[in-house]
Description:
Chain A: It is found in: Cell membrane. By secondary structure, chain A is mostly helical. Chain A is built from 16 helices and no strands.
Amino acid sequence: MTSTETRAAVTIGATGSRRSRNRFAPERRRSTLLTVILWLCVLYFVLPLWWLIVSATKDNAALFSTFGLWFGGDFSLWENLQTLFTVRNGMFARWLGNTFVYSISAALGATLLSTMAGYAFAKYDFPGKKALFSATLGAIMIPLTALALPTYLLFTAAGLTNTPWAVIVPSLVSPFGVYLMRVYAADAIPATLIEAARVDGAGEFRIFWQVGLRLLGPGLVTVFLFSLVATWNNYFLPLIMLNSSELYPITVGLAQMQAAASQGGGSQALFSTVITGSLVSIIPLVLAFLFLQRYWQSGLASGSVKE
Amino acid sequence: MSATPALTAERPAAPPPRRRTSTTKRRQYRAAYLFLVPFFVVFITMLVVPLVYAGYLSLFESKLIGGQAFNGLGNYIRALTDPLFLEGLGRVGLFFIVQVPIMLGLALFFALALDTFRARGSKAIRLLIYMPYAVPAVVATLMWGYLYGPDFGPLAQIARAAGLGTPEFLSAENMLGSMMNIVTWEFVGYNMIIMYAALRSIPAELYEAAEIDGAGQFRMAWSIKIPAIRPAIMLTVIFSVIGSFQLFAEPSLLSIIAPNVVINSYTPNFYAYNLAFVNQELNYAASIAFLLGIVIAVVSYIVQLGAQRRERRERSLS
């Protein structure tokens, strides 16, 4: 329903200048040298992932005896997957589910909070605006990991450690998201549109929900994806907050599996399970980025220019 | 804020339009604050309060008998004379000085190269370089840990096949470099995308003069493109300061496969974690976390100041 408006916003936000520019940077001369250099560089970024895919098809013995970057031994991908999802009563599926729940709720929450705040900063003048926005900008520089420890102590005092809240609530703060949404909203929502809605008698919240949000599409996707990745990939916070393994997200679970595999103790088969688990754990995010790239790239475009 | 609501209410003779603006304004203030409340509630509870609490905790020490005792700046003096903390700080400082320029230089090179559209398959190249960003640091470190492995790691296999012997990626001398490589692999694409997005939004007019002058691609990159995306580059530098000083997942995972090299104070953050959860020295750990935050803030500030000064100097020259 909102796709036309969204597309309009993309054009306003980023592609407007891109279109006209293409005339000046036409695709007239291809450079073979540049093509070769760049594709050689791509190998560096792709080979580790290629290794991961290849290794996920090997059983534990072949993992140690065949060349790492090519298939060898029996094709054991299905067996590996089966082991992965049945070991310890299907704990891996549980971790995957936890990661989904934590990162999607944190990303939705962070996007909503950042969008409301960014919209307010972009479209209203009010006393204290400057000070509040400076505080937000300053907070971008606070290392969140350095805060994790004191946050843990506070959660202990509140009896909230070892609950999903302990991972979700601290991930809701996204000062960079506020900044990005402010820049994006300033461009994407014309002041005249808001004025017109006011004249029509719409309340401020209705204007935000029905006019603002529709025009903020790409910005929303950008903030959502970046919060999603931040929570999905987070290791430090869940590691200190959670201690029962049913609550672990995939990152903490995989690290634990790796530690168990390295200690050996007759559980040698675990290496191939860890590798297959790693492969499975990165698939959802890679897909999310591929399918939503049109949105996050234009959302990022307008956010990174002005400062 | 010309008329307070109380005043307008007392004076019914005031012209209606003015009264309407002031109530509209008041309503808009209220709406703006209501939009901000949810964010700032979480902001204060999850960011400001922990920060203050860490500062508070860092001033105490726990005694075996009698619980918490005020310790003044004792923990900080201990940290600043603690060779383990200082070595860790030196390690991440070195990491920052060496790895960040390499990573951002590569990111800038890729962004500029892709922006010319002279390579075949530019779009695919962009996505493939960006892909590692979607891989969690834990998985990236696990993967590279296997790749580095001296026994069945493919890098060692290739080196042996080429007659170069077995490279020791996980030895004490090479560990930091191996870690730099992992972080570079993870984040070149992310930084490239930020720079590339900024490049794509440079207004066309900026290029027209250069096109007429017949400036080459290198001239254009150097004197138009790079200056135009300076804010975006600055952003990536600041994120990299934060990222390298608070390294945690990489050392923590590598300590599993190389416990004698990646000791529990390898980076300050890893040290703070081990102090808090292995040694149970919460107060000291809080001081380390707080001190690390201060170091990051100071380095970010210096970096920004330097960039501003350079910009001002260049502006006065031109």
